[in-house]
Amino acid sequence: DQQVKQNSPSLSVQEGRISILNCDYTNSMFDYFLWYKKYPAEGPTFLISISSIKDKNEDGRFTVFLNKSAKHLSLHIVPSQPGDSAVYFCAATNTGNQFYFGTGTSLTVIP
Amino acid sequence: DAGITQSPRHKVTETGTPVTLRCHQTENHRYMYWYRQDPGHGLRLIHYSYGVKDTDKGEVSDGYSVSRSKTEDFLLTLESATSSQTSVYFCAIRRQWNGNTIYFGEGSWLTVV
After folding, report:
1. Distance in angstroms (rounded) separating the CA atoms of residues B91 and A35
2. What are phi and psi of B55, to 5 degrees?
3. pLDDT number for residue B74
4. Given CA atoms B112, A1, A36, B63 in this order, what sign does their dihedral have?
């Protein structure tokens, strides 16, 4: 049973606009959440994370929002750039031992 | 750069043959992981290790075994490869000073024919 879900397999956004990627989870014990970016033929690279004690974390153009009551997190990219085109995975952990990943959302930023 | 080297990077093997993938790290981290990536399934944990000779199963461990005889090496073995094990395999490490984040290697592409 998938504990972390990304229900949108793909997303297209115009360059300069906001990209919003969504992620839902089912395990209320998760206390740390992460986003990874993956280009074809490369390994996933860490992008940004958030602890469950926060509801927002920002790093440059990337902001992650956490809504614990809804068991939902989102990644906002503003402004979107063509180089942001990649597959984005959200992940969650509760002990730091096991990390559970979603199925990924393929973002295309159109110039 | 996570200091991880995976080998081989690409391999084609026949059904029923044993295959071993190697993950080598240079930063002396305690935790190491093996994931597989498949379309529609994302990244799924196969096994992980929390020290030399200390390993545990992940979500999709059936058909796989692992060994960690040295801190720097984490081996993933398919005892008898099947076509369902055709996948991209990623090794990851968890850095001590950032315990809630894992960092991935570049992947090993395995095709079982």
Report:
1. 17
2. -135, 160
3. 98
4. negative
Q: Is B97 on the interface with A (CB under 8 A)?
A: no
Mean pLDDT, rounded, for B27-37: 94
The gap between the terminal CA atoms of chain B, to the nearest Å, is 32
Measured CA to CA, the distance from residue B89 to residue B38 in angstroms comes to: 9
Pairwise CA distance, residues B113 & B13, whole Å? 6
CB A61 within 8 A of CB A79: yes
Q: Identify the three-state secondary structure at position B85.
A: helix
Q: What DSSP string runs through A6-66?
A: ---SEEEEETTS-EEEEEEE--TT--EEEEEEE-TTS--EEEEEEETT-SEEEETTEEEEE
B57 touches chain A (CB under 8 A): no
The answer to whether B104 faces chain A, any CB pair under 8 Å, is: yes
Phi/psi for A56 (5° steps) reads -155, 140
Give B29 to chain A, closest Cα distance, Å: 13
The whole-number pLDDT of residue B100 equals 80
Query: What pLDDT, on a 0 to 100 scale, did the predictor assign at position B92?
Result: 96
Statement: residue A95 has pLDDT above 80: no
Residue-wise pLDDT tens digits, B33-92: 999 999 889 999 999 999 999 999 999 999 999 999 999 999 999 999 999 999 999 999
Contacts of B66 (CB under 8 A, 6+ apart): B34, B46, B47, B49, B55, B74, B75, B76, B77
* Residue A78 structure tokens: 């503003």
B112 and B82 Cβ atoms separated by less than 8 Å: yes
